[in-house]
């Protein structure tokens, strides 16, 4: 049995009635069986876990003052440069959120808006989805609508999207969605997944529930036939093989779907001179010397991600791969990222690189050009391995990935 209204086993029905009894002190008239079953399904009808989840949710709503969320004014930069928008319905009449996520400027967004406000903007959207969109579509359809499809377009996604503060913020949004809006997702369909997608997926996968992972469909560039099984061309923009455009003929339908783009510097807030990097290592790089930070990469196509800042002065930075098992000078190693001077005393530096081969990689902080000043350095370095799922679709002539839903 699906665990939905009209499709409950005897055990599930008994569990629902007990759930109502346990929560009678906090339930309101609008908390009907459809609502309560969402929380039960999210915890596989485990009464204790479902009760804890829902009570935590009620406490969170009170703490975040969500009764006034509709009146909150979202910062302009988020309205203009965050990607995505509700657009059309799927073949069953459920709403579709289309998100060209590959075009978002995560660094620019977090330098221009508070992380809390970015997450709050998503909460405001989800509240409107449940209080207005689902109800309107339910009336039109004549039966309950309570879930949506999210279509993620990862075209233009690159290594810059591994920007750690941005990834951390996105993972917080996933956790918020899983904890407070369970069973809202019908399917997540990812299209134009790039070759380094297994690395990105491995970062976010720990934040996905098992149910969400099973609802995820990951595709490459040959996505149209599969996509049409869920969303008809009549409900898609022309840029995705559909038949809809903006009134002015724009094929991306940007009047309804935020297209992201680089955030102008005019939105940036004043930067601190030294980065506040969580768990950073703090060292001094002596005058006329360099510091080599070693990274052991065991799996090819992993990525090395770094953040660092210096106090008062710039520093040189480069990435190398050892060609022997012993410590080497930079001139003897394979150059991966050429050494260059970085103004990390003005703006915290971050970046990443894909390691096409396993081995020992060296991040070299170069202060050999300075004979008078040592440099105080704060750095964080991580090795990100690709997911072990076999994403390659052997039936496709182009790069394609897939996870079949159950």
UniProtKB/TrEMBL annotation:
**PANTHER family on file:** SEC14 RELATED PROTEIN, SEC14-LIKE PROTEIN 2
Protein name, UniProt field = SEC14-like protein 2
Q: Which Pfam families match?
A: CRAL_TRIO (PF00650), CRAL_TRIO_N (PF03765)
Positions of the GOLD domain: 270-383
**InterPro entries in the cross-refs:** CRAL-TRIO_dom (IPR001251), CRAL-TRIO_dom_sf (IPR036865), CRAL/TRIO_N_dom (IPR011074), CRAL/TRIO_N_dom_sf (IPR036273), GOLD_dom (IPR009038), GOLD_dom_sf (IPR036598), SEC14/CRAL-TRIO_domain (IPR051064)
Q: Where is the CRAL-TRIO domain positioned along the sequence?
A: 74-248
Record-linked SMART domains: CRAL_TRIO_N (SM01100), SEC14 (SM00516)
Q: What does UniProt give as GO cellular component?
A: cytoplasm
């Amino acid at each position: 049995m699906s665990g939905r209204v009209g499709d409950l086993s005897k055990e599930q029905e008994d569990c629902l009635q007990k759930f109502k009894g346990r929560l009678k002190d906090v339930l309101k008239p609008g908390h009907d069986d459809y609502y309560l079953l969402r929380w039960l399904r999210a915890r596989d009808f485990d009464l204790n876990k479902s009760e804890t989840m829902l009570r935590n949710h009620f406490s969170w709503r009170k703490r975040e003052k969500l009764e006034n969320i509709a009146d909150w004014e979202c910062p302009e930069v988020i309205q203009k440069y965050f990607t995505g928008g509700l657009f059309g319905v799927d073949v069953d009449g459920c709403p579709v959120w289309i998100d060209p996520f590959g075009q978002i400027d995560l660094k620019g967004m977090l330098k221009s808006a508070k992380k809390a406000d970015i997450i709050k903007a998503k909460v405001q959207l989800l509240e409107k989805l449940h209080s207005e969109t689902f109800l309107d579509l339910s009336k039109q359809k004549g039966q309950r609508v309570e879930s949506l499809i999210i279509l993620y377009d990862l075209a233009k996604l690159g290594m810059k999207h591994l920007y750690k503060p941005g990834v951390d913020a996105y993972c917080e949004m996933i956790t918020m969605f899983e904890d407070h809006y369970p069973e809202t997702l019908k399917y997540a369909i990812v299209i134009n997944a790039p070759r380094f997608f297994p690395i990105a997926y491995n970062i976010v996968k720990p934040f996905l529930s098992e149910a969400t992972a099973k609802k995820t469909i990951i595709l490459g560039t040959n996505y149209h036939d599969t996509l049409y099984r869920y969303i008809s061309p009549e409900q898609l923009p022309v840029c995705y093989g559909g038949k809809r455009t903006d009134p002015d003929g724009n094929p991306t339908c940007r009047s309804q779907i935020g297209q992201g783009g680089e955030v102008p510097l005019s939105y940036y807030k004043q930067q601190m001179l030294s980065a506040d990097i969580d768990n950073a290592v703090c060292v001094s790089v002596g005058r006329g010397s360099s510091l080599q930070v070693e990274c052991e990469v065991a799996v090819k196509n992993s990525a090395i991600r770094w953040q660092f800042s210096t106090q008062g002065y710039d520093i040189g930075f480069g990435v190398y791969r050892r060609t022997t098992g012993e410590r080497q000078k930079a001139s003897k190693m394979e150059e991966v990222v050429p050494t260059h001077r970085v103004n990390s005393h003005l703006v915290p530096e971050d970046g990443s690189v894909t390691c096409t081969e396993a081995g020992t990689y060296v991040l070299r902080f170069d202060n050999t050009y300075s004979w008078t000043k040592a440099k105080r350095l704060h750095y964080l370095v991580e090795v990100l391995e690709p997911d072990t799922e076999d994403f390659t679709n052997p039936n496709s002539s182009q790069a394609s990935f897939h996870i079949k839903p159950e």
